[in-house]
Design goal:
Layout lengths: L8 E7 L6 H12 L4 E8 L6 H8 L3 E3 L5 H15 L1 E6 L8 H6 L4 E5 L13 H10 L4 E8 L9 E8 L6 H23 L6 E6 L3 H12 L5 E2 L8 E6 L4 H20 L4 E6 H5 L1 H5 L6 E2 L8 H5 L29 E7 L10 H5 L3 E2 L2 H13 L4 E6 L12 H8 L7 E4 L4 H4 L3 H5 L8 E7 L3 H7 L5 H14 L4 E8 L6 H13 L4 E6 L17 H28 L3 E5 L5 E3 L5 E3 L9 E5 L5 E2 L2
Parallel strand pairs: 1-2, 1-4, 2-3, 4-5, 8-9, 8-10, 10-11, 11-12, 13-15, 15-16, 17-18, 18-19
Antiparallel strand pairs: 5-6, 6-7, 13-14, 20-23, 21-22, 22-24
Helix pairs in contact: 1-6, 5-6
The structure holds iron/sulfur cluster (SF4).
């Protein structure tokens, strides 16, 4: 969808003799102010008495009067002008005559009109200007607006290109409505013309749900739209992309809501493109499509290619379990994050009973080692001083003989890079020698995040996890021996089917005994097509919440104990400055610096009384 070189595209406007020219002047001004490769080449009037002519002369707009007494003569002369001036579009601006369908079909360029109300509710050949606003007023509407549409022989029943709504609940008179609607016409019309002629910078908006891997992929997706402007998801955009998540029922709910939201925007602006990808889309493509006019549902294996697919590249939906290759495109910008999330692995070789992620991500696939290094160098060259390595199951990373420890070692040799952080690592993959090989790499953040899920061997077995609590205790002891001040975070699921009070107590007691720093606690969420979905002894929502709250309270206590431990040792914290002098330190404590710093700066500071921890 890359916009072509800024060749000047010329348009003409058509206005009748009564026209005061407010829309054509607004078009002329907009093109100039936005510095667009567009020109209102000629304003055509059907009468020399048009008040707008004076204003054209003042504004330096060329104009031409063509009598419309005989519309066949008018249309012939108009066509000659279109050919002679290389015109790309005709915009009606208060034109009271009807163009013939022959003319519209044969002129070969778009003919647009702007209607001062929301079509199809308020339209019709006979209604012009104030009549429309009076009709809207008489109907007691609280919302009005403007509509840009193609002109076809049925005049304003042509396909709608864009609409904008305006609240008129405070308008007493039709004239007030007219003034409000006119204000929005003055941007909507030129914006739509510019978009249709591919002259305005493409506005791309992306919403990302879920994990760091998704955020990295969103950065890669956006980077493919060369020359486009990234806009906030709540702002008007030409392309809306949702990078969805399916880790819990709530993630599916949020993904659908985001989709409905942009489908509403598309209902108003049919030229808008709506794209959904990510794990919810991978597992529910038909459900997503059924929500409305979705332009594209893209599978996880092709998600980085959305720009190319929208530009016409051949695309076929892929079932993710057939994915073999690791798809990679370089990423330079992390969409405003101070630290760079670098995905190096995708998919998973396991199938835990509660998990839908592996169903949405497919088999484990690893990035080529050389690409991992070049991507890290790219981030470092962009000024990122911390890289967070990630994947769906990072511990499964393999490039020949090389594993995640080799990656950390190699990245630590990149001079400008100051910190390397590991995201979640399966316990059984962290045990078995990886820890020893990670020790002695100074740039590695002393921060380990492990998905424990339960402290009951019975539940771990029922979940289909690949370790038991004995391995966990040995692993944690080893972490504390090799990295005595490390932050240790644990994921725990409460209320897995069959989890009795006794099983929960086992979990609670194990956690109480472990020297961890914080917990991420999730209430079990039934996921379609997973073994646990049909398991009996599903735990009630109330009970899940009770257990979750108990563990969150325990986590808060442990985090304070961890902070006290580090303060007592006057631990040196390292980190990358975010906005407001905040840092997520290498020891995973979020701190506020006692002095201002620039976002992205590398900071070392002792955890002294002046440094406050943020919870
Ligand atoms: S390890 Fe288990 S929970 Fe994690 S992605 Fe794989 S199947 Fe899902």
């Amino acid at each position: 969808m890359e916009r072509t070189s800024p060749e000047i595209r010329r348009i003409i406007t058509l206005s009748s003799g009564e026209s005061r020219g407010s829309n054509l002047l607004a078009i002329h001004r907009f093109f100039a102010e936005q510095k667009l490769p567009l020109k209102l080449d000629t304003a055509v009037f059907t009468s020399a008495k048009a008040p707008a002519i004076e204003r054209c002369i003042t504004a330096g707009i060329a104009y031409k009067v063509i009598s419309a007494k005989d519309m066949r003569v008018f249309e012939r002369e108009l066509k000659e002008l279109v050919t002679e001036r290389g015109i790309k579009l005709i915009a009606l601006c208060g034109f009271m005559k009807l163009l013939s369908s022959d003319f519209i079909q044969s002129v070969g360029i778009p003919v647009l009109n702007i209607h001062p109300a929301l079509l199809p509710a308020y339209g019709g050949k006979s209604m012009y200007g104030m009549q429309v606003h009076e009709a809207v007023k008489a109907a007691g509407e609280s919302i009005s607006g403007a509509t840009v549409h193609y002109v076809n022989e049925c005049y304003d029943e042509g396909q709608i290109l864009a609409q904008k709504r305006v609240d008129i609940s405070d308008c007493q008179e039709a004239g007030e409505i007219a003034a409000k609607v006119l204000r929005i016409e003055h941007t909507l019309y030129p914006e739509t013309i510019a978009k249709l002629l591919g002259a305005s910078p493409l506005r791309v908006a992306i919403a990302t749900l879920g994990c760091k891997t998704n955020f990295y992929e969103s950065a890669a997706i956006v980077e493919q739209f060369a020359g486009a402007t990234l806009v906030d998801f709540n702002e008007p955009a030409d392309i809306y992309i949702i990078n969805s998540c399916t880790v819990t029922g709530r993630s599916d709910f949020k993904s659908r809501n985001l989709l409905r939201k942009v489908l509403d925007a598309k209902a108003l602006n049919p030229m808008t493109k709506v794209v959904i990808t990510g794990c919810y889309a991978q597992l529910n493509p038909e459900e997503a499509k059924a929500l409305g006019e979705v332009d594209l549902v893209v599978d996880n294996q092709h998600k980085l290619r959305i720009a190319q697919i929208l530009a016409g590249a051949r695309y076929q939906w892929q079932e993710i379990d057939s994915a073999v290759d690791y798809d990679y495109l370089p990423v330079q910008n992390m969409l405003g994050h101070s630290r760079a999330f670098q995905k190096i692995q995708d998919g998973c070789a396991y199938s835990c009973a509660y998990c839908a992620v592996h169903l949405a991500r497919g088999p484990s696939r690893s990035q080529r080692f050389a690409d991992v290094i070049s991507q890290a160098r790219l981030f470092s060259a962009q000024g990122f001083k911390e890289i967070v390595l990630g994947g769906v199951n990072l511990g499964l990373y393999r490039a020949g003989e090389r594993d995640v420890a080799n990656v950390v070692q190699a990245l630590s040799e990149i001079e400008e890079l100051r910190l390397i952080r590991l995201s979640s690592l399966e316990p059984q993959l962290l045990a078995g020698g990886l820890l020893e090989r990670l020790q002695g790499i100074p740039k590695l953040c002393p921060h380990f995040h492990i998905p424990l899920q339960s402290g009951s061997d019975t539940i771990l077995q029922s979940m289909g996890r690949h370790y038991d609590t004995k391995l966990i205790q040995e692993l944690v002891a080893q972490i504390m021996q090799l990295f005595p001040f490390a932050a240790l975070g644990l994921d725990v699921i409460t209320g897995f089917p069959g989890e009795s009070e006794a099983h929960f107590t086992e979990t609670y007691q194990l956690l109480e005994a472990l020297p961890f720093s914080y917990l991420h606690v999730f209430s079990y969420s039934r996921r379609k097509d997973t073994p646990a979905y049909n398991m009996k002894d599903q735990v009630s929502k109330i009970e899940k919440n009770r257990r979750t709250n108990l563990l969150r309270a325990l986590s808060a206590r442990k985090l304070r104990e961890y902070e006290t431990k580090l303060r007592a040792a006057k631990t040196l914290l390292r980190g990358i400055a975010e906005a407001d002098s905040e840092i997520l330190s290498d020891h995973y404590l979020r701190i506020k610096l006692p002095y201002p710093v620039a976002q992205g700066d590398y900071i070392e500071i002792e955890l002294s009384p002046e440094v406050s921890c943020l919870y």
